[in-house]
């Protein structure tokens, strides 16, 4: 039986929208989701503005199995994710007793002041559960189907590693690619015919442009290994046929 | 007078959502928009599904000055952007006479067949205007405030170069960054005070994690050079004060 589990991502990040920071988290989440059998269906990058965060999270958490957010959970005034997620869920944003105690003890052991700014990182929506942060201690959290994680890639990846084993996963969307030495205009017609004959697959065509010439990566995706192989074989035979025809003298 | 011009981006890309292709267009568009004085306010990555594309484009074109899309304008069956944009605008998607003639002549001159697949690339919403494609000929298009471009980075960048001179631009959001050798917990309190004193600026704090230790990039943004400098000077003085204090013997 095919079981579909879906996800969306919300990146909270003025710095990504301004270009100052280049995103490195979308590709990582996409790779992990594909590997474990969750379909990443949408990504939104929104500014550090409460209304925008609330609107994106509420739109997506209603539609998809999981929502993953990155960014805005640090100690500074521009870190408004905890407040925004609380507002999205209609619950207060409060110091979490366990996070507060853990952070207080940790800073004390390092002889560092537990500043008001650092205390901000212990705030989360009432009812949220921690996502452990092995890199820099201050936890992420999840509430309902929303998982709130750091934007710094090393911390995001470590938090996601802690989240992944807890997620329900679905039937993996398997994929296989066939390299095609021709541009899309040559294979577009026959490829569409193959797609029609294999409605239980998704056949994608991705043009690649390198040093002035085009080649095409043809990707077949399916949840059944048999369906995948049947379509792949037709795609490969179609490409081989064109290669052979183009090598023939007129 | 401050003039605000905004933009959003829609990436049409199953291959980005699956992780197979890593996006390289967001950062480029963000850099260009910032450089010319347009605020990129939102990015959405949606799958190759007509309803999703229509919904995203219609939501964003109503809110922002410009919408830029990438992906899905090639000749294969999975390239459904022209149809989707036509549907979003409620107009038919037809062969564009100028694009058709140009492509027909070009393929003829190269001794190549003008296949049904290649003809697909001459389709666009009725009333759309071309965006020239100096790389691979088949044009992008714009209709209303929506600019439809290729997903292949080299072609996207070339098309965007053709679009940029035609755009209305606003007052640039200037930015300057101050490197801070401390983590955010140390400077969070005083930084929030500086933000309060400079409401005409946006002060962001971006933690950087490198080889096991944290430093912070503090970024001040403003549309007025004077406001920018006033806030920057306070941020720099605050950081210098903490450096000095931490260097003092107890």
TrEMBL record, chains A, B:
Residues 8-170 form the MoaB/Mog domain. PANTHER family: NICOTINAMIDE-NUCLEOTIDE AMIDOHYDROLASE PNCC (PTHR13939), NMN AMIDOHYDROLASE-LIKE PROTEIN YFAY (PTHR13939:SF0). This is Competence/damage-inducible protein A. It comes from Pseudaminobacter soli.
């Amino acid at each position: 039986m095919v079981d579909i589990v879906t996800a969306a991502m919300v990146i909270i990040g003025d710095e990504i929208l301004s270009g100052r920071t280049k995103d490195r988290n979308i590709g990582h989440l996409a790779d992990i989701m594909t590997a474990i059998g969750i379909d990443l269906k949408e990504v939104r990058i929104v500014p550090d503005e409460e209304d925008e965060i609330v609107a994106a999270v509420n739109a997506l958490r209603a539609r998809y199995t999981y929502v993953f957010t990155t960014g805005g959970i640090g100690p500074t005034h521009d870190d408004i994710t905890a407040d925004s997620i609380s507002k999205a869920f209609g619950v207060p944003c409060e110091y979490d007793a366990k996070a507060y105690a853990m952070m207080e003890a940790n800073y004390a052991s390092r002889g560092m002041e537990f500043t008001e700014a650092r205390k901000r990182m212990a705030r989360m929506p009432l009812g949220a559960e921690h996502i452990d942060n092995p890199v820099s201690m201050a936890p992420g959290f999840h509430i309902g189907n929303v998982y709130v994680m750091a934007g710094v890639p090393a911390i995001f990846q470590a938090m996601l590693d802690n989240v992944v084993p807890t997620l329900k996963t679905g039937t993996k969307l398997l994929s296989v690619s066939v390299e095609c030495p021709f541009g899309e205009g040559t294979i577009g017609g026959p490829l569409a015919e193959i797609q029609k004959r294999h409605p239980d697959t998704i056949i994608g065509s991705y043009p690649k442009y390198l040093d002035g010439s085009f080649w095409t990566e043809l990707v077949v995706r399916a949840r059944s290994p048999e369906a995948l192989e049947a379509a792949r074989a037709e795609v490969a035979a179609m490409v081989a046929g064109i290669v052979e025809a183009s090598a023939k003298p007129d």
